[in-house]
Design goal:
The structure is a homodimer. By secondary structure, chain A is of the alpha/beta class. Chain A has helices at 16-30, 50-63, 79-90, 108-114, 133-142, 196-209, 249-252, 275-286, 292-301, 304-330, 353-364, 390-402; strands at 37-38, 102-105, 125-129, 148-149, 154-155, 159-162, 180-184, 212-216, 242-247, 260-263, 269-270, 273-274, 335-337, 343-347, 366-367, 369-370, 381-385.
Amino acid sequence: MAVINENFSKLPGSYLFSTIAKKVASYKESNPDADIIRLGIGDVTKPLVPAVTNALHLAVDEMGKEETFRGYAPDLGYSFLREAIAENDFRMRGCDISSDEIFVSDGAKSDSADIQELFGLDARIAVCDPVYPVYLDSNVMAGRCGEYDKESGKWDRVIYMPCIEDNGFVPSLPKEEADIIYLCFPNNPTGMALKKEELQVFVDHANKTGAVIIFDAAYEAYITQEGVPHSIYECDGAKTCAIELRSFSKNAGFTGLRLGYSVVPKELNRMGNSLHDMWARRHGTKFNGAPYIVQRAGEAVYSKEGKDQIKEQIKGYKENAKVIREGLKNAGYTVYGGVDSPYIWLKTPGMSSWDFFDMMLDKMNIVGTPGGGFGPSGEGYFRLTAFGSHENCLKAMERVAKNS
Amino acid sequence: MAVINENFSKLPGSYLFSTIAKKVASYKESNPDADIIRLGIGDVTKPLVPAVTNALHLAVDEMGKEETFRGYAPDLGYSFLREAIAENDFRMRGCDISSDEIFVSDGAKSDSADIQELFGLDARIAVCDPVYPVYLDSNVMAGRCGEYDKESGKWDRVIYMPCIEDNGFVPSLPKEEADIIYLCFPNNPTGMALKKEELQVFVDHANKTGAVIIFDAAYEAYITQEGVPHSIYECDGAKTCAIELRSFSKNAGFTGLRLGYSVVPKELNRMGNSLHDMWARRHGTKFNGAPYIVQRAGEAVYSKEGKDQIKEQIKGYKENAKVIREGLKNAGYTVYGGVDSPYIWLKTPGMSSWDFFDMMLDKMNIVGTPGGGFGPSGEGYFRLTAFGSHENCLKAMERVAKNS
């Protein structure tokens, strides 16, 4: 009899966004005429910019001709893309990252889920609370989280770093010794950012204790304030303790195109092993590269016209964030985030976050994400995203105003 | 200090094809004028067919317009593709597989590497010897293979099923009780196929013992002989014991486009758990779908014109296989495979397979893959692939004739 991985059955419920999708589908079935506005998942709605579609068309033509056809991509990504990333996302910001420290992938979700494979099964993880579920769930599946306590909503081997109103949504250092510290800033789901000196505290701590920071910077394109780091490598010493994950989904609208990358510096060693070399081996063994045409699309994001067009696109989403922030505030809600982030984090007025979800869906036909789905400290909060159309954001805030 | 995954350091050497790539690059550097013919890795060289590039262009246009833009794909794949797969690859062959048993992925390499996550760490695996390295290496990284013995080239917790001249390259049932049995037929690397009744023996065994078969059918489009099953679901009872992996790489030239799928029947349960549901959870948590444009390209493979064009393409590769088979035979080599497969498996005449690799590269400027890289029973063999251009296959065989 095949021995199965029993850790899967420890996971409570289904993956958060699958649960929401099912709830919405069922509501839609009973209310086929409802004009539902989806501000739930972080999925973009604006079309790919012309620089990107042009690059895709060109690359498709290349793939259709014998002389220019490309088969398997290099495991770690084409050098044209790795070079563009290293130059634009790092060196132009003063971060000394070279192209061979960039690992191109099919998206930050895969990288977020797979990076834990570099660590031992007895490694202890620290996560913010609330948190993007993939960090936790991937570690649960691997068997690193211990047992789930339904009462507290916590795993007994996980170290939680609450991000709540009381601490301004800035996590404190882990209370117990962690091997892996997951940080996502600007944060999903709270929409709040860390200042450089606040992030530096974590870098110094990791260098002292030997922990490794997994820094998810998927939302860096939404940063508007000075002093908020776009990359962890802006902090001194980050190259000896941090892996950074990046996505093309939120900065270039690639959710349906799938492209992301991770940065593993060559100076990052633990127990005599180079994490860079381990990750390269993992890529070489388990992954066969992102599609050539998608890597060309990624390259186009860094062209002059690509940069201009994407800036315009992000500006639109930022305006949406402002509309939602102000709409909610005017309706009397307490609101966080939405300044350096496409996420708005609001306090649910005297009801649980799932009750608030049901109320929003039922009374206003708006889909958001219940804070409790991101962890116990998310209870009493609710996340809205700025990725809908501008028209829908305005319409949603009209409904909020009418119902408050 | 972060606890790392020490299983990585158990892996001997680097990933086989990375090693070969490095050797070839170094030869090329010392011999810049050498006209190297690459018949090593299983990478296609013919361009994408027009049905596929047309579908890609159309889908790119859709992604560039607000009304038709698509963000995140459904976790398990778009229904238009899952439906086309279930209908064309299974129901039209008399296999009762439904579209919701199809899981679309970014390629069979990822699926081959990830499928082991469904099983416990104490599960024992059985593999053919020689074998596609990903099955083994992914299990080594998870810690399931025990220790590597350099002398024998074997892992002490792995059950090996030799595929050698003596048994006509047909594996016997595992000698010890296995939880997971990996089978790839038509086989990589030997190029040999199993008849339906030979595969049925494994299905019956798995249903009796409770083992799960991972059946890799990446090369099914190359089958020419009657009685060779295209899918394991042609065997009675396979739906209660087998997962099938498929690839668009070899049947439609998608190596650079990345598309594959797995089939996990809903009847497949172990220890009270549905493997279908576990795999769905794994996809939902760790993967964000294959790109929309690539899924549309996959759909086009099943259109009338797509089928015709691809048939023509595979015909060309099959002709290459014949050229290589006969060229080698005429030069006095003992040759297997190449009839139901794009792989030709030859006996190295009185030298080790790595020595033969060096000789081929040095004397004939031909790159192949040393059999020993696929496992101890591959020693004394060498793999050539039919995926080069026709011209290069002819040229390679001229060089072989001249050097024998």
